[in-house]
Amino acid sequence: MFSLTICIDRLPDMRLSGNGRLHYHEKNKLVQEAKDEAYYITKDALTKCDYWQTPSKARVSYEFYMTDHRVKDMDNAISACKPWLDGIKLAGAIISDNGWQLSIGKADFIFANEKQTRLIIEPLEEK
Fold first, then answer.
1. Within 13 Å of residue 3, how many CA atoms lie on the same side as its CB?
2. What is the CATH number of the domain that holds 62?
3. Is the confidence at residue 127, as pLDDT, over 70?
4. Do residues 112 and 67 make contact, with C-beta atoms less than 8 angstroms apart?
5. pTM of this structure
6. Statement: residue 80 has pLDDT above 90
7. Helix (H) and strand (E) counts for the chain?
8. I want to staple 35 with a disulfide (CB 3.0 to 4.6 A). Which of 87, 93, 114, 124 is the partner?
9. From edge to edge, which strands make up the β-sheet containing 116-123?
């Protein structure tokens, strides 16, 4: 089984999580910046891999590479990735992020030398 990995060289902005408290103008700006960032990274990844065909159903898994061992809230980290997922959808790597066409796989915090987030998209077979 093959997959498409989108690598973003930072962790998600936790102000975009469910617990983030921002004025809507500031939040909308951050959301648009994150969406654009993921769009261009995904478009670049899609031009470099000739095997990817947008699946009708997919699974996304998350890997958060941390430089410290501080305790983080996993569900907030995932929710802060929503604008990135929207950018990935706009780039054409997935059809939709609704619950019928996208499921959540595993999510891990990994200790590393540099901060990074990886979103791994795997096609799922129709049932």
1. 14
2. 3.30.1330.70
3. no
4. yes
5. 0.92
6. yes
7. 3, 4
8. 87
9. 4-8, 116-123, 58-66, 102-111
